[in-house]
Amino acid sequence: MRTKKSPAPDLSRVQIQILEQSENTLVIRWVEPGRCHYGEQRWRRRSANASGTCIVSRRAIRRGDAVFRPAERPAPANAAAMISVEAFEGLQKK
C-alpha cells in the first residue's frame, strides 16, 4: 500500500510547548494554525531517516543525526517534523 508523505510543517507558524521530557521521550503540545493541533503528542528519540530542519533551532538536520520525531500511528499531520537532540539539550541547560 502506498502512503502519502506529509508535507513539511510551516516553521514560521508552528508553536510547541514541551510538557514532559525524558532522555528518550518528549510529550509536546503542537499548534500549527489551520493545519493541526495536538494537545499531548508523544515524540521518541531516533535517528533521522532523511535530511530536514529542526523545528526548534531552525538548523539543518542530516540523515543519521539524533532527533525526536512524532511516535504516533497512524502517522500524524506533522510526521515530517524533527527536533534535533542537540537543540533540545541546549534548551534543557538554559
Structural class: mainly beta
Strand order of the largest sheet: 1-2-3-6-7
Q: Give the uncertain stretches in residue-range form.
A: none
Tally the helices: what do you get?
A: 1
Shape: globular
Largest sheet, strands/sense/barrel: 5 strands, antiparallel
What's the end-to-end separation, in Å?
A: 45 Å
Query: What proportion strand?
Result: 35-45%
Helix content: under 10%
Number of strands: 7
State Rg. Answer: 13 Å
Average pLDDT metric:
85
Counting copies of identical and different chains, the oligomeric state is single chain
Domain module tally: 1
SSE pattern: EEEEEEEH
Description of the molecule:
There is one protein chain. With 94 residues, the chain is mainly β. It has one domain (15-93). Helix content is 10%, strand content 40%. It has 1 helix and 7 strands, in the order βββββββα. It has one helix at residues 85-93, and strands at residues 15-21, 25-32, 36-47, 52-53, 60-61, 66-70, 83-84. The protein has a 5-stranded antiparallel beta sheet. It has a two-stranded antiparallel sheet with strand order 4-5. β4 (52-53) and β5 form a beta hairpin. The longest helix is centred in the last third of the chain and has 9 residues, at 85-93. This is DUF3331 domain-containing protein. It comes from Trinickia symbiotica. InterPro entries: DUF3331 (IPR021769).
